[in-house]
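Propose amino acids for all 315 sites.
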């Protein structure tokens, strides 16, 4: 009887225990279903929690910067270094545009447009090379300058304003290759036949466009056809230039010389004197003649005066 009773009691306990576990599981399931958190809310809560941690870390004076903060600091430092470097580079760039050391004025031009030494220490057997009516063509300009460079010679390239306006890049070639730019009026017209105002504009407009194109104004002026007057000379002087025509004409512009480089050479040699101010042009036969002409001048003991060494006042 006792065994039977004990068995009944044990069965009853087991049943009660099973019912309690089922109720507890059911309760958990109900709680999970009724109080579930949507994925969006979980992300928001996680984000808020992370924000709180980052703020605390960033605001804390004793905190160690995170790897992200350290990278940000490095970027800031790099920016400062780059900025400093850029400033230094800018300084170097502007320095590269610094003006060249001034060349000593060893020569002057006389009233007949010959180039004369200022004293006995300077060579009197010199010639001044000049080319009018450009800039025309890149090929001819570079060919002329190639020959000048070969003979370590400088020349004045007297340019017309309307040509510079059409081809500013050609003017830059002359300047960047170390040759000297001169003013030959805006149009190739007789300035002597113009009013003083119109002629003055022909001069000043070239000064302006040359300055805008290469950064410097011409220091030498030659009127088209060599034709001018006192009013024009006054305008030229006012603009800081030396007024000149020439003392040795190559006649390369004349039809008798066209396509005859040997004639160009002979014409120059026939008129040759110490200080000759030689007039030539940017023409194919002059380009062809130049190498032999310069060689013959050197054989006769002549050197080529640097225009920058000539005073800007005739005497």
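Proposal:
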């Amino acid at each position: 009887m006792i065994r039977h009773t004990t068995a009944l009691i044990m069965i009853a306990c087991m049943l009660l225990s099973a019912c309690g576990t089922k109720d507890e599981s059911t309760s958990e399931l109900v709680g999970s279903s009724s109080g579930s958190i949507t994925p969006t809310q979980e992300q928001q809560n996680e984000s808020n929690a992370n924000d709180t941690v980052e703020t605390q870390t960033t605001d804390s004076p004793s905190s160690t910067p995170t790897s992200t903060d350290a990278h940000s600091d490095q970027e800031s430092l790099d920016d400062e270094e780059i900025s400093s470097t850029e400033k230094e580079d800018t300084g170097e760039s502007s320095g590269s545009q610094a003006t060249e050391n001034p060349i000593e004025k060893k020569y002057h031009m006389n009233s007949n447009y010959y180039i004369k030494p200022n004293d006995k220490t300077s060579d009197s057997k010199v010639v001044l090379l000049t080319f009018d009516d450009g800039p025309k063509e890149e090929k001819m300009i570079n060919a002329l300058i190639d020959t000048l460079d070969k003979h370590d010679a400088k020349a004045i390239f007297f340019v017309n304003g309307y040509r510079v306006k059409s081809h500013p890049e050609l003017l830059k070639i002359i300047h960047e290759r170390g040759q000297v730019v001169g003013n030959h009026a805006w149009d190739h017209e007789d300035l002597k036949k113009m009013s003083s105002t119109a002629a003055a504009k022909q001069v000043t407009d070239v000064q302006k466009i040359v300055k805008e194109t290469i950064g410097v104004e011409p220091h030498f002026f030659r009127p088209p056809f060599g034709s001018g007057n006192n009013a024009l000379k006054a305008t030229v002087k006012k603009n800081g230039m030396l007024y000149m025509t020439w003392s040795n004409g190559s006649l390369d512009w004349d039809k008798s010389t066209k396509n005859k480089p040997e004639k160009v050479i002979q014409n120059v040699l026939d008129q040759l004197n110490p200080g000759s101010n030689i007039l030539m042009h940017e023409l194919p036969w002059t380009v062809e003649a130049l190498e032999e002409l310069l060689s013959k001048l050197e054989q006769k003991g002549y050197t080529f005066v640097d225009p920058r060494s000539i005073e800007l006042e005739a005497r």
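The first strand starts at residue 107 and ends at 109. Strands lie at 107-109, 115-117, 126-134, 155-159, 180-183, 220-221, 242-243, 248-249, 276-281, 303-304.
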